[in-house]
């Protein structure tokens, strides 16, 4: 197992001081880099472990923050912050660009080889970076079948992979159809995987606080979705020694 180095990084975004989590692979050479966006509750150890896992694979990984260092356990507080954010593409892009700037400024990161992977609200941020024309190599999302402003998906310059649970009430079939129609109309290289029997946030291990209805962990599909994300990165952003 390779040695991974980690540290927190502070940076301004959305009128807050964000606290991200950076994981660096062993060695000194530049490596491809990946942004990791969290669910609406905010950055947690789940995303930190994912950053470390990607660093083990040879990527520079930054798990970015949504709420200025806070983790929003109360569903009502989370919705009060995330719903206006999800309705404001420019705010989401601001959060994404700020994190991407930090990642690309890291000396170990190759700024010309970056990807964005996000879950829930963090996935919506990743998609908005694509719709803003950012030069990413891949975008991967889970539970984030958000649609953007008309025509802006044509600016996406990389493959998009999306995963969703078949029983997700927050991302129902009508939302899936709207998302795929947007991607298809824009000529995006897109894929959608529907994980049978899975709810919203099926990838996220159980938490010890109240969650919204329709949220539930599906360990088998969680493992499959992670393998699918890793496969996307291996295809579009390979690590070369």
UniProtKB/TrEMBL annotation:
It comes from Saccharopolyspora taberi. InterPro entries: AB_hydrolase_fold, Dienelactn_hydro, FrsA_esterase. One of its GO terms (molecular function) is hydrolase activity. Belongs to the AB hydrolase superfamily. Signal peptide: none annotated. The keyword Membrane does not apply. Keywords: Hydrolase. SUPFAM superfamilies: alpha/beta-Hydrolases. Gene3D superfamilies: alpha/beta hydrolase (3.40.50.1820). This is Dienelactone hydrolase family protein. It comes from the Bacteria. Residues 20-235 form the Dienelactone hydrolase domain. Coiled coil: none annotated.
């Amino acid at each position: 197992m390779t040695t991974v180095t980690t540290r927190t990084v502070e940076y301004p975004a959305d009128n807050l001081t964000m606290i991200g989590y950076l994981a660096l692979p062993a060695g000194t050479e530049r490596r491809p880099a990946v942004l990791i966006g969290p669910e609406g509750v905010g950055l947690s150890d789940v995303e930190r472990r994912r950053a470390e896992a990607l660093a083990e694979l040879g990527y520079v990984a930054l798990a970015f923050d949504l709420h200025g260092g806070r983790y929003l356990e109360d569903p009502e507080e989370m919705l009060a912050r995330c719903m206006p954010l999800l309705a404001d593409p420019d705010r989401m892009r601001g959060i994404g660009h700020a994190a991407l700037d930090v990642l690309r400024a890291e000396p170990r990161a190759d700024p010309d080889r970056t990807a964005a992977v996000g879950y829930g609200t963090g996935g919506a941020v990743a998609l908005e970076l694509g719709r803003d024309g950012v030069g990413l190599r891949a975008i991967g999302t889970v539970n984030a079948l958000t649609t953007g402003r008309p025509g802006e998906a044509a600016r996406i310059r990389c493959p998009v992979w999306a995963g969703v649970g078949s029983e997700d009430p927050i991302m129902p079939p009508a939302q899936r159809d709207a998302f795929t129609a947007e991607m298809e109309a824009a000529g995006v290289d897109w894929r959608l995987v529907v994980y049978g029997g899975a709810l919203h946030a099926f990838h996220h291990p159980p938490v010890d606080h109240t969650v919204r209805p329709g949220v539930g962990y599906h360990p088998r599909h969680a493992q499959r979705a992670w393998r699918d994300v890793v496969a996307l990165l291996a295809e579009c952003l390979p690590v070369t020694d």
